[in-house]
Write a structure and sequence with these properties.
Helix content is 40%, strand content 21%. The chain is α+β, with helices and mostly antiparallel strands. Helix 1 crosses helix 5 and helix 5 (165-180) packs antiparallel against helix 6. It is elongated and about 65 Å long.
Length: 224
């Protein structure tokens, strides 16, 4: 089973038996809230991507991609030879500012951290690795926020609506029922089903996706 955008909106109306105008107008919001809950509760390696940028000599900041959720790794290299690539360690900004209290002192960066919503902080401040006018090529591997199903045409599907359809359905119903101030027993049922669906999704994203049976054997769950 999978949902197109139109099918999911219709399913929400069918489950709640609510076609009131303001409720229907808010269904896209309920879907986005459910998507956000899933992304924040399950680590799905499918939602990783790479972004390339350049440091600026004398500038300790590196722009964060607009769809950034969390870092996986950051590497730097000089020139075009990948043999010169090296990885920098992720640290708290307080560590970085203690390590390099004077941002005017430049060198080969060894650490990075999230400074604010728009910028990473590098320490030490990047130098010009191959002489004046040269910079490091930064490659960020990160978890990203995929485009919401609500941004797509009615006939389209997203990865979540195809592969995590139960989580998306019950997560959306939870948000819809909060809006409706629905009966507590029905709300509890939706919450339970949403949580149960996340268990399978977490097994996929945090165990099966990150191993292969040839080297590690089958994923074994503890007895209940």
């Amino acid at each position: 089973m999978s949902f197109t955008y139109a099918e999911l909106k219709q399913a929400i109306q069918d489950y709640t038996e609510n076609d009131e105008t303001s409720f229907v107008n808010n269904i896209p919001l309920f879907i986005r809230q459910a998507e956000e809950n899933i992304l924040k509760n399950v680590q799905l390696s499918l939602f990783r991507k790479n972004s390339t940028a350049f440091t600026t000599a004398g500038n300790p900041y590196l722009a964060v991609p607009s769809d950034f959720l969390a870092p996986f790794s950051l590497s730097l290299r000089t020139g075009t030879n990948n043999r010169d690539k090296f990885f920098v360690e992720f640290k708290d900004p307080s560590f970085l500012q203690t390590y390099t209290p004077d941002e005017s002192i430049v060198g080969e960066p060894r650490y990075y951290g999230t400074f604010d919503v728009d910028n990473f902080l590098l320490a030490p401040t990047p130098n010009a690795p191959d002489g004046p006018g040269t910079n490091y090529t930064a490659e960020l591997h990160y978890f990203y926020r995929p485009a919401s199903l609500t941004t797509l045409p009615d006939t389209s599907s997203s990865w979540l609506s195809t592969n995590a359809e139960l989580s998306l359905l019950y997560g959306t119903l939870v948000e819809a029922y909060v809006y409706m101030k629905g009966e507590q027993d029905v709300m509890s049922m939706y919450v339970t089903r949403f949580k149960d669906s996340l268990v399978g999704l977490k097994m996929l994203g945090e165990a099966k996706e990150t191993t292969d049976e040839y080297r590690t054997g089958k994923v074994i769950r503890g007895k209940q």
